[in-house]
Amino acid sequence: LKHLLTIEGLPRATVQHILDTAExxxxxxxxxxKKVPLLRGxxxxxxxxxxxxxxxxxxxxxxxxxxxxxxxxxxNTSSASKGESLLDTVDNLAAMHADMFVxxxxxxxxxxxxxxxxxxxxxxxxxxINAGDGRHAHPTQGLLDMYTIRHFKKDFTQLRVAIVxxxxxxxxxxSDIHGLTTLGVPEVRVIGPLTLLPAGVEQMGVRVFxxxxxxxxxxxxxxxxxxxxxxMRGALLPxxxxxFKQYGLTREKLALAKPDAIVMHPGPMNRxxxxxxxxxxxPQSVILDQVTFGIAVRMAVMSILGAN
Length: 308
Ligand code: CP
Prior knowledge:
2 domains, globular, binds phosphoric acid mono(formamide)ester, transferase, Aspartate carbamoyltransferase, aspartate carbamoyltransferase activity, EC 2.1.3.2
């Protein structure tokens, strides 16, 4: 693996190898072991053209636990604000001997463009990790979600998983669907209003439900999604109140899933819009476990890329 741009098309064995490698890093991620030297002498550049709390921070922690040098480019104070192009920015950072770029961008495809450019102009040893591009993909979130599900549920081949909410604008939903189908989950459901489901989503191998109560029946895993207001331009939407009534995860709706179902959310959460606090903070929630596992998963991805 040279770059990690999407989960789509990755062989099952590669996804499993990343999850197994992450498992071997849990002790380092959770600070039982301080650091490992796998990326010593390497420079990781975090390029976040969109805001982030979890992804940027856990990439930084993960890189430091692998002994890499980490540079966080502040886009607002960089020369991008004077009109410097994306690829000129990347060329200049590559000239500073960057070994790995972690890229988040509002434009779907931006990390692919950067990877192609680096391959053509800077040789074979600079790696790109997509940290979320537009509504397209967020592969490390998808992988940490798969890690979380494997941790709590063990066997992917026995599961019913529901992804609920704004699937249309969600890069996490796409990466999760690719991860779940690659790992052999027999039933992946998407639940939401038709205005927030992509046309033809069934072709991704999912069952579609517009009624949340029907869709949650007997599921093992519930992945809630945020209403991505920043990506909705004039979309026909219910009000937040109406949305919560129909698609908000409440204790009453959660009771329709299996009694040991886990509740996930990639964050940031809109409490009272897609999820009620008693569920987000309740005994079935693994939302903060997802964040912690993100460190080990990102260590795994960076160490695997860095070895190539
Ligand atoms: N899950 C996620 O991508 O969160 P951040 O936007 O805080 O990185």
